[in-house]
């Protein structure tokens, strides 16, 4: 047992001795419209235990396909409150529903006034739906990344009929080559191997490796197809499996460090630091 513990602690030095940015986590809303504080505090403890320097969080609406402005604003305000509570740890992604009135104004408010660093979208619309075009153009104007819920579901009927697959991401990346895109949770469920193939030619698409799936070779395959510089570390509620699958991946330590630091996207994380 001591030998195993020593090995685990030795492996974790990769996290402790290097910059670690977790690009996919959440601040959740409880049933009375406040932060689910116990859940967040547990996440913060886990992040600190594993040497994470930054948590990039969002508070998405996962159930309402017609999510109006007041819902978006309430959720973003909850997130902003926790950004203030943990100013050195938490960065925010503004959640928006691109089909709702006031969506672009909410992006402006969250980025310019609240110091958030990008936007997060769920599955209210496919990422390449034309309703998205003004949102994508706003992201280009503000020079911010957009992280979008993604997956290639393998069962019928689909529980998320507008979830964006790799083909949708490829289409929007082709239309907007200057857009900074994150295809969320490669290992969140579904056919991750299928997801990777359409996005290979599009250098403006990053992926994050968050999710509870721990299939062998998923990270190795992503590195071989995209290169480590297009991969971001993330956990999306599965902190232990997120740490473990990266440590277990048969890739070089340099590639692991590249994934952990998210160096290519580090410039976005300084926004709002003077607030």
Describe the overall structure.
The model has no long low-confidence stretch (mean pLDDT 93). Strands 1-2-3-4-5-6-7-8 form an 8-stranded parallel sheet. Helix 5 packs parallel to helix 6 and helix 8 runs parallel beside helix 9 (218-226). Helices cover 40% and strands 12% of the residues. It has 11 helices and 8 strands. It is globular, with a radius of gyration of 18 Å. By secondary structure, it is an alpha/beta fold.
Topology summary:
Blueprint: H1 2-11, H2 13-16, E1 21-26, H3 37-49, E2 54-58, H4 69-85, E3 90-95, H5 103-113, E4 118-121, H6 133-142, E5 146-148, H7 166-175, E6 181-183, H8 192-199, E7 205-208, H9 218-226, E8 231-232, H10 239-248, H11 253-261
Give, in spatial order, the strands making up the sheet with the most strands. 1-2-3-4-5-6-7-8
What is the H/E order? HHEHEHEHEHEHEHEHEHH
* Main sheet properties: 8 strands, parallel
Q: Give the class from helix and strand content and strand pairing.
A: alpha/beta
Radius of gyration, in angstroms, nearest whole number: 18 Å
**End-to-end span in angstroms?**
47 Å
Strand content: 5-15%
**Helical content (DSSP H or I, runs of 4+):** 40-55%
């Amino acid at each position: 047992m001591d030998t195993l513990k020593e090995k685990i602690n030795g492996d974790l030095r990769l996290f402790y001795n290097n910059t670690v940015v977790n690009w996919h986590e959440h601040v959740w809303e409880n049933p009375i419209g406040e932060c689910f504080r116990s859940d967040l505090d547990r996440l913060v403890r886990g992040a600190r235990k594993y040497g994470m320097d930054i948590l990039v969080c969002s508070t998405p609406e996962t159930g309402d396909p017609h999510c109006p402005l007041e819902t978006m604003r309430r959720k973003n305000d909850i997130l902003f409150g926790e950004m203030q509570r943990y100013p050195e740890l938490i960065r925010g992604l503004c959640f928006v529903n691109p089909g709702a009135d006031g969506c672009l104004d909410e992006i402006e408010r969250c980025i310019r006034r609240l110091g958030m660093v990008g936007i997060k979208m769920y599955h209210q619309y496919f990422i390449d739906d034309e309703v998205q075009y003004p949102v994508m153009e706003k992201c280009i104007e503000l020079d911010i990344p957009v992280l979008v819920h993604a997956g290639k579901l393998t069962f019928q009927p689909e529980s998320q009929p507008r979830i964006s697959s790799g083909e949708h991401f490829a289409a929007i990346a082709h239309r907007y080559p200057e857009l900074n895109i994150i295809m969320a949770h490669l290992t969140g469920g579904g056919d991750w191997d299928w997801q990777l193939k359409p996005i290979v030619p599009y250098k403006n698409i990053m992926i994050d490796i968050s999710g509870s799936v721990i299939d062998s070779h998923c990270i190795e395959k992503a590195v071989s197809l995209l290169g480590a510089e297009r991969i971001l570390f993330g956990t999306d509620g599965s902190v232990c499996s997120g740490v473990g699958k990266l440590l277990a991946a048969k890739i070089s330590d340099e590639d692991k460090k590249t994934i952990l630091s998210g160096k290519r996207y580090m410039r976005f994380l300084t926004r709002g630091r003077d607030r």
